[in-house]
Structures are given as C-alpha cells and as structure tokens.
Amino acid sequence: MYRIALVDDHRILLDGLQWIIGQFSFVEQVEAFSDGEALLNALNTDQHFDLIITDIRMSPMDGLELLEQIKAQNPLQKVLIMTMFDSMHLLRDAYVKGASGFFMKDGDQKHLKEVVCKLLLGGIHWPKEPNAQRTADLPNFTRREREVLSLIAQDFSSKEIASKLSLSVETVSTHRRNILEKAGLHSSAALVSYAMKHQLLQ
To answer: From CA 97, how far away is CA 67, in angstroms rounded?
Structure first.
C-alpha cells in the first residue's frame, strides 16, 4: 500500500483528485496540500510519500520550482507533474528537472490510475507522439544524430546547434531530416517528446 501527496492551489480540484486517488486499491493514504511550501514543510518533518503529484501553475511557488526543491532534498523521490497546459516547453522542463512523468488534466480516471500505478512500480510516463512508428528498438542513429537530437530537444535552433557542434547549418538541417525520417516523426515538437521518452537528452 502506498502513500501519495497531492499539491494544487485550486481547492475543489484538489479535493476531487484526493477522493479519486483514494479509491485506488493500492493506495493507503492521500495527503492534500494547497501550496508547495506546505508540502516541503511536511517533508522536512520526515513525512514520506511514495509519489508526489503536483500542478505546475501555482503561486507563490510553481510546480517546477517545487520539483527542483523536492529533488534537491531527495533525488530518488518520484514526482508526477499534472497540468492543463499542453506545452512541449513545460514537458521538456519537467523532464530535465527530474520529474518521473507528465499527465494532462483532461485525461480520465482509468488512465490516471494506470499512470500512478506505473510510477509507483518504478516506471516513467511521458506523452506519446501519435504519429510515431512504434518499434521495439531505437532507430540506428549515428553519434552525431544523437547529439543533434539532444540539442533539438533542448530547444536550440539549427544555427545554435551548428555553432555548438562546429557544423554548417545545412549539415544540421540534413541531420534533422534524417532523424525525423528514421524515427517516423513529422515535427520538432514530436522529437522533444521522443527524445524524453527514450532518455536521449544529454
């Protein structure tokens, strides 16, 4: 049985989520906090949670800042980010800062249960690119393609990538096309999600 902490500054959403997760058969206790400071105070009194679920857009401390502070105290703590904002920048930032997963608030209870269970069992959860061609193994990316992919996922432009890797912009553009083709993707936004899903960020 697991203990879960919820953080959201909208009380009605917090109460609803607390009730929903409290119905999961594998959850023993769900503690609700209306801001990040309250959660940090609880952690400082040696309260333990198997999973922390936090919103992003909160005040005075937003979810990404809270995530940083949680991971600074305990790098192994599992944290699930929940948001209604479908932003690849937020997705990437959550990944880089150490989140275990990212869940859109428009998801249903069944999906939430699956994601929470997955994270509690040691897995991770990142949104999937619907147009990706699924294969069991990664494409045969070259070392340079992996470097370019990592930088694309960190939001660097082709010009900036060219400068960092001492390449021409044309060469970077060629690598970008090859990566998209090998991965079966169709946009840079899809590459961000793909790189995080396969842990290809450097």
So the answer is: 7
The count of domains in the chain is 2
Domain end, chosen from 85, 120, 155, is at 120
For the chain, the straight-line distance linking the first and the last C-alpha, in angstroms and rounded, comes to 35
Question: Mind listing the pLDDT tens digit for each residue in 112-160?
Answer: 999 999 999 988 887 654 333 333 356 788 889 888 988 887 778 889 9
Q: Clarify whether residues 110 and 183 are in a common domain.
A: no
Beta bridge partners of 54: 7, 81
Entry pTM: 0.68
Angle at 126 (CA atoms; ends 123, 128), nearest 5 degrees: 125
CA distance 22 to 30: 6
Residue 101's DSSP bridge partners are 80, 125
Strand 2-7 and strand 51-55: pairing?
parallel
Residues 104, 160 share a domain: no
Amino acid, single-letter form, for residue 121? L
